[in-house]
Amino acid sequence: MRKRLIAKRAELSERLERINANIRRPLDANSTERAQEIEDHDVVDALGNEAREELAKIGAALQRIESGKFGVCTTCGEVVDRRRLEAYAYAKECIECARNGEVSILDS
Length: 108
Ligand SMILES: [Zn+2]
Hints:
Elements: H1 2-24, H2 34-66, H3 82-87, H4 95-107
Helix pairs in contact: 1-2
The structure holds zinc ion (ZN).
Zinc ion binds at residues 73, 75-76, 78, 93-94, 96-97.
């Protein structure tokens, strides 16, 4: 599991670098395509945010592995179902707590 997360992190870092390289490409100030370019940048930016969020989750999961808390729900302390971890390696909560969390967000 640890190896898988580290491999995933490397893959995401690489993707993020490519995205950042795209963002840094200077805009052509005189181009009539400028509006389209800015739009493209927004899309790229959103992709970057997604990758960054995922990286943060993987980092947190790796930290839980280091501290021996991986696979334990951060909310109720129960062991997280193995199938859930296999589908979603950086889940920090068991399925019940994740579901409860979603419900409370919807309620508020
Ligand atoms: Zn729980």
